From TrEMBL:
The gene is hisD. It is an enzyme of class 1 (oxidoreductase). Catalyzes the sequential NAD-dependent oxidations of L-histidinol to L-histidinaldehyde and then to L-histidine. This is Histidinol dehydrogenase. It comes from Faecalicoccus pleomorphus. InterPro entries: Ald_DH/histidinol_DH, Histidinol_DH_CS, Histidinol_DH_monofunct, Hstdl_DH.
Amino acid sequence: MLTRINKNNTQELAAFIAGRNQEISSDVLIQVSEIIEDVKENKDEACRRYTKQFDGVDQKTFRVTEKELDEAIQQCDPDFCKAMQKAAQNIIDFHQAQRQKGYRLQKEMGIYLGQRVLPLESVGIYVPGGRAQYPSSVLMNAIPAHVAGVKRIVMVTPPDKQGKIHPNIAYAAKIAGVSEIYKIGGAQAIAALAYGTQSIQSVDKITGPGNIYVAAAKKMVYGKVDIDMIAGPSEILVIADEEANPEYVAADLISQAEHDPMASAILVTTSQALLEKVNAALQRQSAVLPKKDIIEASLRDYGKSVVCDTIEECIDISNAVAPEHLELMNKEPEVYLDLVKNAGSVFMGYYTCESIGDYFGGTNHVLPTSGTARFSSALGVDAFIKKSSYLHYTKEAIEAYGKEIIVMAKEEQLQGHANAARIRMEDKQ
């Protein structure tokens, strides 16, 4: 059942959703800090110790060889491989449209200035291991980097109990353009990517999901390297009109609720009758799913519903919440799209379930959570580029505009800046 709240409590709902983020405890921060310092000091030797301690594997070497990669891929289901190939192409097509070009402005007296768009030189992608395996996340992280022009894409992932890489992860890395793969996980993997070891060369940016220890490590190494984001629990907000199918709505709310007991599923609708049907469908559908207990906990603690008079009112509430996933499950959703100001990704129409975006559609599933869609964006090509400006002045130009530069520098009490312009103006050569 979804707890119904008053439509006038929009800000309270937004604060409630944003407040689900778990604070990283001081014990975790201390432990992760010690791991990072150990890896900085002892490099591969420290990584081996932690791999033995946390993964139960005596890892002599970390890098996955081509032979090992091919052997793993041979175990993949052919239908899975075909689906991944189609998904990868969709992701490539979408992200290629994001590529930017630099520009140059030509002005008077030989002045020109411009901007270059440059790919990062190296990127590290963290891929969780353990019981869960997310090959789709490999595609979503590696393909935009590859499209951006990153030459060195490094993947780290914990080994299984036999010291091997999961076949599906191996296949995803192969088709996504990953350059190097290392069997190492946890905070030690983040430290290795940030500071380098004898086996693993450091990178410029680290992306990808992980547990609380990985999140803490990413937070701590930020500044030495860039990171994508510190993601919170997942969330979905469905805006549904009276013609929406309650079975579809319930299924889509459950698709996020099954992630985590702290995941949030919100229905904002113009129909009280639909809400009642959705609540019945939630109970019926969740009862037969493997993650029933997680779904029920999520819906009980973080499942909310709001009934509004109009779709416009529904969208106002959504904009305040700034959901990670927003479904416009109403007639002519494109009519309302421009009203949506804050959402990680928007899924339009009765048949566009959020699962399409998670796996296959081409849009990226690495999205801002906990209200951060108010100011941040989905992972994409922009995350893997940097912009560098350039400027050229001639002797004639510095003589023409030097006085203005000197005046501004003096006002800021920076005489050296003023002198750098003056000395060029006074040079008669």
